[in-house]
Amino acid sequence: MIEAVGLTKRYGDKTAVYNLSFQVRPGAVTGFLGPNGSGKSTTMRMILGLDNPTSGSVTIGGHPYRRLPNAPRQVGALLDAKAVHGGRSARNHLLSLAQLSGIPARRVDEVLGVVGLQEVAKKRSKGFSLGMGQRLGIAAALLGDPQVLLFDEPVNGLDPEGILWVRNLMKALAAEGRTVFVSSHLMSEMALTADHLIVIGRGQLLADMSVKDFISANSADFARVRTPDSEPQLREKLGTALTEAGGHVLPEQDGALRVTGLPLPRISDLAHEADVRLWELSPHQASLEEAYMRMTQGAVDYRSTIDQKAGLQQPLPPGAQPPMPVPGQGQPGWYAPPPPQQGGQPFAMPQGPSGPYGGAQQGAYAAPGAPAADAANPYAQPAPQAQPVPQAQQAPKDRTAILTPQAQPAAPAPQEQPAATAPAAPTAPQQAPAAAPSAPADLTKPEDAR
Asked: From start to end of 173-293, where are the E strands?
């Protein structure tokens, strides 16, 4: 049995554990719960003699850990799965621990089989995954076949099969009359594994009771009642009857009613008297997670906030409106729409002369097989966002290449003109139509760019 009396630990001006007293009895799995920074790891280190308490005491079987004869054979612990020399194989790591404690070598092979590491027993531990490291740490804790076992987050990194194995292992060890003390943040796993709970917050004891009593003391049971969705007047009629009978009724988002203060048989009788058909009448009990969150909500030191993305978003231009939220964005199956094409008009898919955007639109491709002369020129009107053809660099005064905009796709390729005939303010150059794709190539000759 583990017993702590008035346990206190201070690090400078910070108090990690304050006046903590509890007992961990054999024959049951005791869960050790608390928020991050509540002092769980510090408490377990003081139990194992790794940290000296500022005041108070903690004993195992009536003795401090350091005074236990051959302590590794009486107490097994997993506090840090990474506390292994990476250059050693799994078997050599366990063998060195066994030799220090007078444990026969055959026990090493036994625990390797228990944790399922026979296949990698001769491999160096530095190549182990997190789950394999956890299994090796559990093997080290079981090495001396101890009566007292302490585990700090033993299922971290394990797959579902490994989590189930650890759960059954804890229960089997407790069923043999051993003392099993387990710290974990997985409330769902603790609800399935632990028989008793010790909950601390900011270094102080918050609860020391069974799992069932803990849930009942920190949650309110309620009944869930549902009437036919097609007849909302029945729900209002039932709600009035339940309220008049002394119940407290709250509507839920899916249309059901949450009723407290009345037992299920009484709710059924009231619905029968009011001539209201029920689609659902079920009891609800809070989970361990809900009860834990309710108790420890005032003892959480590290709380997350909403990411405001301050200073990362581009400022909006003057007069621009912030983007409207996209319906369905962030939901499963939602995909962002394709970005709009440059030029102001989207390109229609080739599905006939009309296309998905109506008739022959400006800026839409013609139907497949249509003559080139009959197709509308998508570049007939200049657009401010259109991609211009790269102009030639500044030419000498006696020679300048200028592209004359063409209105018809069948027009010949533009020719070079002397600089004297160039207009004073030429319009924005346009790309040549598809009928003359080689025209821009004549404007970028090396001798023109000099």
From this structure: 179-183, 196-201, 204-210, 222-226, 248-251, 257-260, 280-284
86: which 2 tokens?
Answer: 């990476």
β-sheet bridge partners, residue 284? 222
| Paired tokens of 281 | 């009448």
Alpha carbon distance 394, 407 (integer Å): 26
Query: Model-level pTM?
Result: 0.63
- State how far the Cα of 130 lies from the Cα of 110, in Å rounded to an integer: 22
Q: How far apart are CA 185 and CA 431, in angstroms?
A: 65
pLDDT of residue 44: 96
Domains of the chain: 2-216 (3.40.50.300), 221-286 (3.30.70.870)
DSSP letter for 65, please: G
CA–CA separation, 284 and 257 (whole Å): 12
Q: Which of 190, 84, 177 is nearest to 130 (CA)?
A: 84
Q: Is 201 helix (H, G, I), strand (E, B) or coil?
A: strand
Rounded to 5 degrees, what angle do the CA atoms 175, 177, 178 make?
100
Confidence tier at 405 by pLDDT (50, 70, 90): very low
- The pair of structure tokens assigned to 304 is 């997350």
Q: How many CB atoms lie within 10 A of CB 415?
A: 11
Cα–Cα distance for residue pair 307/284, rounded to 1 Å? 34
For residue 306, CA distances in Å to 26, 142, 303, 309, 324 come to 44, 44, 10, 9, 20
Query: What CA–CA distance (Å, rounded) separates 171 from 189?
Result: 12
Residue located via tokens 């029945």: 234
CA-to-CA distance for 408 and 406, rounded, in angstroms? 6
**Do residues 174 and 27 make contact, with C-beta atoms less than 8 angstroms apart?**
yes
